Amino acid sequence: MRILSTIGLTAEQRRVIEQAAGDAELVDRRCRSLAEVVEASQEGCDVLFALRVPDAIITRSPQLKWIQLISAGADHVLRGKLGEHQAITITTASGVAAATIAEYTIASMLAWAHAFPMTIRAQLRHEWKRTGLMDIEPMRGKTLGVIGYGSIGRETARLADALGMDVLALKRNPNERRDWGWSPPGVGDPDGSIPRFWYGPDQREQLLRESDYVAVTLPLTPDTRAFIGSKQIAAMRPSAYIVNVGRGEVIDQSALVQALREKRIGGAGLDVFEHEPLEAESELWDLENVILTPHVSGGFKNYNALCCELFAANLRRFRTGQPLFNVVDRSAGY
Q: One of 127, 176, 276, 279 is an active-site residue; which one?
């Protein structure tokens, strides 16, 4: 078996993978473009460990059986020929950044709850301004609606539960409450025991009506594009704060901007956008009820190392014929 990694492994990361690979050959080439991946795969491989995957891999490596992505999303791969090539199993890195993105989500909510945007602007102006800061409402006792109860949503729920929040969950099939994906030990809500109530996709307005805070962690699929539009935003509470760490396209951005401008909802924490980089002329930059970051919620120093741990766990399963973690369901799009 030949394994091709295109992420540029450290010595320790290579050791972790080799321990799981048995007598398989491990080839590591740091590839920064699709063209470099094509070149690296010219001798073929049985397993690919990568971020970027060109369609040409199908002909370059006809023996390819499995692709382990280092991204939680697979939409960038499924858009091409691989989306229809059922013979190649694709697994994602879902769970790797769950703790970090959940921390970001809760941090955004805490920053909003404690009026940090207001105090930072006052600090920059050298103003000792306490107006409005004595009316802060604690997050304890508030309701958090989690739209997309995967690894990120579950860890966000766990942290929110520790803060004393009431949690509501929405997922594609609310009757499947257990999480069978990969997560580091102690992360998430694997049994689905935290939410007080579960909703399906057709019940999203009901969840939004009942939520003080909303965390959106959806992948981008045909079913989730514009999942939250003007109708759903209209169902939100006037004081509600929504955080999107999934994909920008799952929220109708123009409808959200209008609601924020007109103060029909409290605010938004946005790490993802319909078009990235966000256009310099976008109104979002200047709205005082928006906390905005450039798609960085999932970044952390040891990201690739944790991806290697997941890959090693899956390699052991692959070699022994066991089901892999995080297998992409092409019909669902993630």
A: 276
